Amino acid sequence: MRYAQGGGLTAERREFRARLRLQAVEQFARGETNAVIARELRVSVRSVQRWRKSWRSDGARALGSKGPASRPRLSPAQFRQLEAELARGPAAHGWADRRWTLERIQTVIARRFHVTYTVQGVRKMMRRHGWSYAAPAPKAAERKAGGWVRADGGRDGRPARAPCPPGGE
């Protein structure tokens, strides 16, 4: 899985990888070959070659963890602002119906914060902040579209409406 698809390393996994690289540094200092180091650490020879090159040019500190590959693009304060925008409803943003879609949320984020997200990124962000998809009851489908709701029911006790992916989840 690639980073853009939600992959990447957890903090524990980053720490584990950093420890591997530091073990490799000890073995570089002892003069062991790349193949031996790769076999002992269970990594590719190419990784060991890259690590050795970095170690030669910048020392052991070059092989430490650099932290997460990215950070959330919207801060907690910005996400609260986004929720306020969602509470205003789609009509306030120029859409005729009452239905939020992930694409519409993506557009609001781009307009309001000048930040781009993929549709999948919007979905993951909403889930991360406690939103979930709620499909309408079959008989109510004509009256009310399904959508995303806050798990806590929103500030006023009513479900807060948010994006509804085409065709459900």
Could you walk me through the main structural features you see in this protein, from its secondary elements to its overall organization?
This protein is mainly α and 169 residues long. It folds into two domains: 3-63, no CATH class; 76-150. Helix content is 46%, strand content 5%. It is built from six helices and two strands. The protein has a two-stranded antiparallel ribbon. It starts with 10 loop residues before the first helix and ends in a 19-residue tail after the last strand. The model is unreliable at 1-6, 155-160 and 165-169 (pLDDT under 50).
The description of the largest β-sheet is: 2 strands, antiparallel
Q: Tell me the span between the first and last alpha carbons.
A: 20 Å
The H/E string reads: HHHHHHEE
Poorly predicted runs: 1-6, 155-160, 165-169
Estimated structural class? mainly alpha
Total number of strands: 2
- Number of helices, counting only DSSP H or I runs of 4 residues or more: 6
Strand content: under 5%
Mean pLDDT: 79
Helix fraction bin: 40-55%
Number of domains: 2
Keywords:
mainly alpha, 2 domains, disordered N terminus, disordered C terminus
Topology:
Blueprint: H1 11-30, H2 34-41, H3 45-58, H4 76-88, H5 102-113, H6 119-128, E1 131-134, E2 147-150
Antiparallel strand pairs: 1-2
Task: Give the structure's gist in a few sentences.
The protein has two domains: 3-63, no CATH class; 76-150. By secondary structure, it is mostly helical. The protein has helices at 11-30, 34-41, 45-58, 76-88, 102-113, 119-128; strands at 131-134, 147-150.
